[in-house]
Structure formats: C-alpha cells, structure tokens
Amino acid sequence: MIMKTPTARGESAPRGEPAASRPAPTRTDEKRVAFASTRYRISQLLRTIAVEPVDCIRERRLSSHESYILTTREGVALRMARASAVKMPPETSAAHGCEGARRVLALMLAFTADKNTLTARDLAAATGIALPSVYRYITLLRETGLLAGDERGTYRLSARLIGLARAAEAAESIIDIAEPVMRQLAAETGETVILVRLIGRTAVCVHRVQSAQRLRISFEPGQPLPLERGASARMLLAGLPLEQRREYLAPLAERDPEAAARLEAKIAQAFRDQYAISEEELEAGVFAVAAPVLQGKRTIAVITVPSPLVRAPAPLRDTLLNQVRKAADIINSGLRASRRALRGHRSHRYPAEHAGLP
Which of 4, 87, 306, 309 could link 288 by a cystine bridge, Cβ 3.0 to 4.6 Å? Predict the structure, then answer.
C-alpha cells in the first residue's frame, strides 16, 4: 500500500501515483508558476550585477602614469572647449551690457512738454518695454531722484533734471557764441529765436531766446522736433551725407514712399539755397525760416525764427530771411575765430611740436 503525502502546489505527484489521479492544472496555477519563475530569474540577474557596498570602496592613489593621462585628457578637453566657444567681440558684449541703460534712457525720453505725466502702461506703450521691466526701471529712477510719482500711479520727471539741463546748456560752446547773436536777432525781428541741433536721430531745441510779444511761438530747450516736418529739421537733414539721410528717413519711405520723395526734393532745395522755410508744417498759423550754422563745411546746428503768420506777410518774408541768414553768418564767423584761437592756444602751449623741434 502506498502512503500519500500532501504535495505543494505546483510540485509533481509522488512517484508511482497514477497520472490520471493528479488534479489538472488551472489557468491561475499557470500564471502563478510563470510569475514565480520570472521573479526567480530577476533575483538571479540582480545577484550577478550587484556591486559592492559603498563602505567597501577603498581609496587608492593614482600612479604617476595614470595622473599624466588624466591631466593630458583634461587639458585637451579644455582646449577643445575654448576653441569651439563662440568668441563675441568686445563691442557686442558692451552693447549687451548697456541694454538696460538704453531702456532707462528711453523711459526718460518718453516724457515731453505735452506728455509730462505718464503711467507705467503709458511708458510701456511708448517704449515697447515689457510692463514688469518698466516697473523695475521706475523703481530705480525714483531711488535716484530722477522720477517722481503720486498715489494715482502717474509719474513725472523730477526737478532734479532742471539742474542737469542747465549744466548741458552751459557746456554747449556753440551757445556761448550764438547767444548774443540770437538776442540781437530777437530784438530786430520781435520774434522768438531758437537754436536746433541733431541729437541722435532727433532734432532738438538746445537754446531759445523768447520773444517779448504776447502772441509768440514758444519752444523749450530740450524740446524734440519731428525730422519729417519743419524748416529746422529740413535744414539739418540737408547737411547730412546722402546715405545717412536716407537711413534716417527709411521709416518714412517704408510708410509713405511719395511723402519721402517730396521731402527729399525739399531737402535738396534747402541744400542748394542754404536756407529753409516752412508754413504751417508744425503748427497751424506759423511761418518759420532756418539757416545753417557751420563748422567748416559741416552743419552742426540751425538758427530758426518761427513767426505767427499774421506778422509774416509775403512782403516781409524776404526781410526776415535776410535777417536770419545774416545772423547765421555772424555765428559761423564767431565759430571760425574760436577755432583759430584754440589752435593758437595749443600752438603756444606746445611750440616745440609745432615748430618741428625734437
């Protein structure tokens, strides 16, 4: 008689037991066997690839040969990295570093006599700077005392800039020479006289002698004027090289090619005449005459007399034109004398150099 012993699930029946008496394996049994087999194989694989514990790692000094190989490879890699690096020119790096300063200046230049109070959104719209950056620059300008604000969220340039404007005006040597001539011209014509220079790509009033008349044309020092209109801007553009002038007028040419062509014709005429006139181009009811102020052959400024049309009828315009051109000639003569005096001063300071002595 054969004694039966219980068998584990998945094991074969005792030897000698008829196969027919064994229970047929179910699908669940097959899955369990497959899972157990897979788990076993994974555990064996993990044992074969297991690494030593970290505390079993022992420090070993590198031999001189191994150190040489590592050092050489590091040096080669460093040289390759340096060779493959993009080398930026110094002016590019400087330009990138100045971008923040340009943006701050753009915010300050967004203020004008007409737009003397602006919100942060106004500044962002005028300069194209993102609003979060505008707020950061506003904080900086307020800390330095160049910008003032109120509880309504509007900002204005502070009175501290008045001193800077006076310092800039005092530093303009051309103003020292032009000032008495402008005062004499204002007294003769009874009109406001302005001195306009090209700063960057903007015509800017740098000095003004105000008319004593009640009805007068008012310009403030530092006030920008559009390049596309007016006698002053036209005379300044006439003094530029052709390529530079076309570059300045490129936005107008893209926007309105016909207007750009008409302006080019007027500029060419102003260059030939060496004066420019305008009528109601900047303001309704205003006539203006402008003449160039020269340094050698280069136009460095223009002297302009804007007059109400009621005081500039056709018979008097030639008289006004002659007065303005005469004033410009006097300023030009003063600049030439100033340059001669400066050269003589340098010659006096360095006589050996100018005499060709060692």
Answer: 306
The alpha carbon of 255 is separated from its chain's Cα centroid by a whole number of angstroms, namely 22
The residue assigned the tokens 């205003």 is 286
CATH number of this structure's domain 165-346: 3.30.450.40
Mean pLDDT of 46-56: 46
Contact present, 98 and 88 (Cβ < 8 Å): no
Per the listing, tokens 């050269």 go with 343
**CATH for 97-158?**
1.10.10.10
- For the chain, the structural domain boundaries read 97-158, 165-346
Question: Residue 165 corresponds to which tokens in the numbers above?
Answer: 């404007």
Encode pLDDT of 124-180 as tens digits: 999 999 999 999 999 999 988 889 988 889 999 988 777 666 656 555 678 889 999
Task: Give first-to-last CA distance, the chain, whole Å.
Answer: 137
H helices of the chain, in order, are 27-49, 64-84, 90-97, 99-109, 120-127, 131-143, 160-171, 173-189, 231-238, 242-248, 250-255, 257-273, 314-349, 351-355
Q: Which two tokens mark 53?
A: 């514990």
CA gap 203, 44 in Å, rounded: 85
Burial of 327 (0-12, 13-18, 19+ CB in 10 A): buried
Query: pLDDT by residue (tens digit) across 289-342?
Result: 999 999 888 899 999 999 999 888 888 999 999 999 999 999 999 988 887 876
Task: With beta carbons less than 8 A apart as the criterion, state whether 233 and 225 touch.
Answer: yes
| Closest to 118 in 3D by CA, of 161, 142, 144, 153 | 153
Phi-psi domain of 64 (left: phi exceeds 0; alpha: psi -120 through 50; beta: other): alpha
Is residue 114 within 8 Å of 220, Cβ to Cβ? no
Fold agreement (97-158, 165-346): no
